[in-house]
Structures are given as structure tokens and as C-alpha cells.
Amino acid sequence: MNFLIFTQVDTQFLIFRTNNIMLNRVLLTVFLFVISIVNAQIKDEVLLTIDKKPVYTSEFIRVYQKNKDIIIDSNQKSVDDYLNMFIDFKLKLQYAYDLELDTTISFKNELSKYREQLILPYLVDNEVSELLVEEAYARTIDEINVSHILIKVSVDASPSDTLNAYNKINEARNKVLSGVAFEQVAKEYSEDPSVKHNNGNLGYFSAFDMVYSFESTAYNTPVGEISKPFRTKFGYHILKINDKRSSKGEIEIAHIFIKNKEDDIDYAKKQIIELYKKLLQGEKFDYLAKNYSDDQSSAQKGGLLPKFSSGKLINPIDSIAFSMKDVGDISEPFSSNYGWHILKLTNKYPIKSYDELKQNLKQQIENGSRSIIIKKSLAKKLENDYKITEDKNLLNQIYNNDIPPNSQDKNLLTIEDENYTLNEFKKSLNKDNETSKEIYTEYRTDKIIEYYKNHLEEINNDFAIIFKEYSDGLLLFDLLQNNIWDKAEKDSIGLQQYFDQNNKNYSWKKRAKIIIATCNNYDKAILVKDLMLKNKTIDEIKLLINEDATIHVLFNEGIVEEDSNKLPENYDFIKGVSKIYKVDKNHFIIGNIIEILPAELKELDETRGQVLNDYQNYLEQEWVKELHNRYKVEINKKALKNLKKEIDD
Question: Which domains are assigned to the chain?
Fold first, then answer.
């Protein structure tokens, strides 16, 4: 059964039922993000009524324009034929509403899940999102090297502690500006534990490697200059921009690592040099890594490490890895603080183009910390559409951690007619690393967007249409499941009766018991045909033709119809060994028909899937007839005439 549900999704919501296999409704999610609205330039009139309930031309024209090119039968592409299908659809839908299937908990829960997915494209400020994607790509193709000083201060620190931290970072900055080496000031002031090892130098990084405010300060400060103090959730920072260069992309390396021994300072060096000599003599890198490397996590993979970008590994590993030019290059042995290493460059991954990375960057932005920027931008635009009031006194008390008792039920925020109490807001106050003011700002943004989501159908006609059509589609799915599909599967007596009444439609064509041999070259095919003519068994032929691991002939045997796609085109359907048929340069087929079977009617078990499919179609047709008798359909001939004229034009 090919059943078309009239939805407004580009790919269309089609539910197919073939050979008793029904596509699960979960397949709907494939179509959730491909949304397009056809705006018909036609006067909206009542096209028809179903028990006096109006159906407008605008609804018909939308689904007609979207579905007309995918209707399988060309004779159904006319407006009249399509209108008949449309009326059948509306009758089924009306019956579903009369049964109140739309009020069931299961239906509401499922529809709610789809709504959350359908609404996603409407929750993005596309202009801001596009700018962030472009910015992220620019930072992806250029990586930056910075040194930094951190003065820790928590986001909920007291004003005096915050001021002390700010003064201290300014003091450090002034020393650097006066000429003291940044590295020296970093060792004296920075509270980042890594300063002991790197003197404040964080190496190279690019987009998404640091928190967004840190990343933006780094990219917006010129090379060689010192940034102004800025704050993150970790505290106050200043940066020195050491270098900016084109990104080297990502690379993949394998390595052999021999760790240092405290009781033998020369052990690691001697061992790595011996292994390097074996490499020069032609020994395989992965063999040595597997059997000798002390990095157990990579040794079993031949020393292979996941691909990485510059700055992700410690130096000198990082710098040496990126200095290798050609895939297959092997480094000379070198030491780090942990031991001795040899690297092999196994692959290089240059930065992709903007178009190739755009979708991935967009997902990273909308799923990461940058999403708050998009959210705030959308909320800012929405503020102009809604009446929003706040209890300023209560807010000040929250900011000062001085919330009076018995105020839990006070309205803190009101958006149009929706009230949000202090008690409701307090559920958000347990967030780490954010001040009360930051938490409220985020809470306010969330509530504006939440209100927008909950009332989107009222302000956005496109979404209202799409959501209604998804609702109708799911509703009709449940109706057909209960009234047709499940009923047919459970009605074994009705299925048998239908088969008995229509068994002439289910018959075998002329068939044959056949052995089919497929050879990989013509010479082998000649030998196989000769052996088949000598009545050699399949096993005997395989033994004579195939050579150990080299398979020259494969066999298939069974019963096939004369036009089976298992047979070569124009196969002579006669008893005995056939001629050699060339399929292509690597496939030659010889058949041996053992017995010809005449055409005959099938048994039900031999064609149950097809019979069930046809029986479901029959039940649906009978059901639709009942619906036409149940409901009175009246067509507005004038509106239909106008509609046809508009479509023809």
C-alpha cells in the first residue's frame, strides 16, 4: 500500500506498507529539518465542507503543489483526482478527531517530542549565527601563540576580594609594560599551576580550544602586545600575543616511547637508539612500537595516536611532529621530560574549506558556550514584542544575597500573562562559577525564549502550518495502525477468505530447478561447462577448478522463475546445461536446468506478504466508502473552478 499523508515537509511524510513491513514512525525524524512553505498566490475561499466544517483552498493548494510531482500514477496528477485523494484524507482525519485520538496521553507525548525538533530552526538568530561561524572559521585557519598570567578569583567573590585580584593583575601588567620580561612576571604573579613548566606560554591554539572570552581577547589583541585585563570564570587574565600563523591543520603520528629509569639515566637513550637502528635496517615501525614502546595505550595500535592539531601535545613532541613534511617520515630519537621518543608521520589533514566546515562549525557554536550569544540576541529581539516587567526591589535583594523571608511566592518576572516567582527562580541559583546577576540574566533570557516557544504558533504562520500537519500525520498514523494494519494482521480468517476469492492474482510463472555457476574468466567457464556436461557434482567441480585460496567458480542452486534477475538476460529457459553467458569481463555464467516446473497458483504461505498488503488496501478502500457515507461532503464548485484556473495559469 502506498499511502500519502498530506504534510508540508519537502521530502514528504510517506508511510509505505510492503510485504507486511511497515516503516516505523521514528522515520519521521529524517524529515524534521527539511522545511519549506509554498505560498499560493490565490484568494482563500472555502473549497469544501465536511459536515459543514470548512476546508480552505489555501490548505489544498499547499499540499497539491508539494505532492503533485511524487504521485506515482500520472492520472492522479489532475486537480480532480488529487482532490478525491485529499477528501479521503480529510475524512480519515475527521474520524480520528471524532474518536478524540488527539487527546490521548501517548499521542500528546509523541507530538511534544516532534515539536521540540520542529521548533529548533526558529530558535536561532541566523544573522548572529552566521557571523559567529565566519569568525570561528577565520580563527580555525589561523592559530595563535600566547603567554598568560592568571590571578584567581571566584565569580561570587566579595567586592573587596574582586578588587584585590583586579589590582594585582594590573600590577603585573604594569611591570610587563615597564620592560620586565613577561616570563619573569608570570613566574612571580601567575596562579596558573602550569606556569612552573611553561613560564606562562600556552603554545598555539585556535577556535574552540579556550573559553570564548579568552579566545576572543587573544585573537583581538595584536601580535607583540599585552592585552588589557579581562575576566573569565577562573579569574583575571592578561595575555601576551607571541605569534600568529596559518594553521597547520591536523596530523596523525605513531610513536615509540621509552620512559626514563631513575636508577639508570642512560637506559632510555640506549634503548631508543637501538630501536632507531632497527628502523634504519628496515624493521617495521608498528612491530617495534607494539613490542617495545612503554606507552601501552598506543603500543597495541602500532604506536598510533589520534589525530591532533598544533599545541595539543607537549613539546618537543608537538614541534617535531609538525616539522615532518611527508607522510612516512620518521624522526631521529629525541628526549622529553618523560623519556625518549621516535615519531612517524602517518597522515596529514589540511584545514578544509569554509563550505566544507560550515555545518560542523555551526553545530559546535549552537551546542557550545557561544550559543548563549545567539540566545541573548534572539531574546533581545523578542523583548520588543512582549510586555516584560520585573520586581526591581526583589532583584536587588537577590543580587545582595538579602532575600527577605516570606517572599518566595512573589512575582519576580512577568512576560505578557505568564508569571515567574522567586521560588521558581531559586531553582537556578545552584549554578557554579556564576554570580546571582549572571544567573538571573541567563534565567530571564531562557524564560523569554521559553515563552516564545510556547506561543510560536500564534505569531508564526509557517510554523503553525508545519506543526498542524505533523500533528495530523501522526494522528492519521495511529488511526490506520488501529483500523487497518493491525486489524489485517490479526484477521487470519478474513485474510484467507480474501486470498481464496482472489487467488488467480497470485500465481507462479514457469519455474525451474537450476544450478547456476559463475566463473571469473572465460577459460574457466569452458572447463566448468564441460564438467557440468559430464554430470560432475558441484563439489567435484570446485575441487578441480578452484586453486587453494583462489576461487574461480561459485555455485548457486534453487528454484527460479524464467524472468528471474538471477539469470542472464535472454537466458534460454530449457532443460540441460546452457551456453556460456558473458555478464561482464569478470563474470561468466553457465546454468543447468534440472527440471522445468509449470506455471501454477501459489499457496497462501508462499505469498502471504503480498496478500496481506493487498488485503490492507482492500480494507482501507471499504473503510473509505463507509466514511463517505458517514460524513456529508459538499464541494464549492465556484471555488474549485477558480482554483483550477489559477493552477492552469
Answer: 1-98+461-506+604-649 (1.10.4030), 250-349 (3.10.50.40), 385-456 (no CATH), 507-601 (3.10.50)
